[in-house]
Amino acid sequence: MQSPLKGKHPAIQLISFVGLSLAGVIAVMFIGMLAGVFIWGPAFTDSFLVAGKGEDYILHMKYLQILSHLGMFIVPAFVFGWLAGGNAIRYFSLNKGMSVPVFLVSIALIFLSQPLINLLAEWNSTLSLPESLSGIESWMKESEEQATALTGLFMKDSRWSSMFFNLLMMAVIPALGEELVFRGVLQRLLIKWMRPAWISILFTAIIFSAFHMQFYGFLPRLILGLILGYAYYASGRLWVPIVIHFVNNGMVVVVTWLYELGFNQMNPDTFGNFNDNPLFLIISLFLFTASLVIFAKLAKKHRYEQSAAI
């Protein structure tokens, strides 16, 4: 099978992927909107006229959220993998799993990173743009407030079915789609294009954080992007950052659901936050550093053993 993008310069491949992503969004959203009208009838479009009211609006917004991820990330990524490698599964190394120790340490790594991420989130919330950019800052605040309000609507339902659907929409699909694109495509191509590798990992993490259009969450998401980027680079397995990404997002969904259900009295916004307890914060940062060192050793050993077996 011919792969028209195989062997092309990384810049050409990146431009091609951007084109595929734009085409994917248009195609998937168009087909999805038609499917929505077919499934729900006029109620599908009518619900958007009364934004924020009723279960229909929430269900349809969740549907659009899934469509946007499919169109922007998952569909174009698999098409790109086919065009660049002939087999998308092998191109993204999705046919290669990870060892149990790497899996467990990956989960520990993202759990132990939460205090650091929360600390950076608190610092980030105090930042402000110069007076000359006050208009942009107001727009960013308004955008984030709208996104937070919509997420709140998604998470408010305490039913089991809603929790599982939220896990699919906010953890499974974003973890797969965003890691395919940001680590599987962007970081991989940038590493081929420029050296040393850490520059590509950092650049990818910056784009990953900026893409979410949340100025007051930029620093914590940047750190998350660095963890995901390093996890992929060290292990050579895309499943590793996918698992880490899923656990990071899934924690929020489950903790919020338990809070709404009344099982958990801890506010989800303060989960893993030790900013008011310096001793616990220092201990958590030490444990996070230790888990990172252990992960690096395990990932290197696992990668070497897999290469030797081949």
Short description:
By secondary structure, the protein is mainly α.
Would you write up a description of this structure?
- The protein has helices spanning 10-40, 43-46, 54-85, 88-91, 100-112, 114-125, 134-155, 160-193, 197-211, 218-235, 239-261, 278-309.
- It contains twelve helices and no strands.
- The model has no long low-confidence stretch (mean pLDDT 87).
- It is mostly helical and 310 residues long.
- α5 (100-112) runs antiparallel to α12 (278-309).
Give me the secondary-structure topology:
Blueprint: H1 10-40, H2 43-46, H3 54-85, H4 88-91, H5 100-112, H6 114-125, H7 134-155, H8 160-193, H9 197-211, H10 218-235, H11 239-261, H12 278-309
Helix pairs in contact: 1-3, 1-8, 3-8, 5-11, 5-12, 6-10, 8-9, 8-11, 9-10, 10-11
* Overall SS class: mainly alpha
Uncertain segments are: none
- How much beta, percentage-wise? under 5%
- Order of H and E elements: HHHHHHHHHHHH
Q: Please describe the biggest sheet, giving its number of strands, its sense, and whether it closes into a barrel.
A: none
What are its keywords?
310 residues, mainly alpha, 12 helices, 77% helix, globular
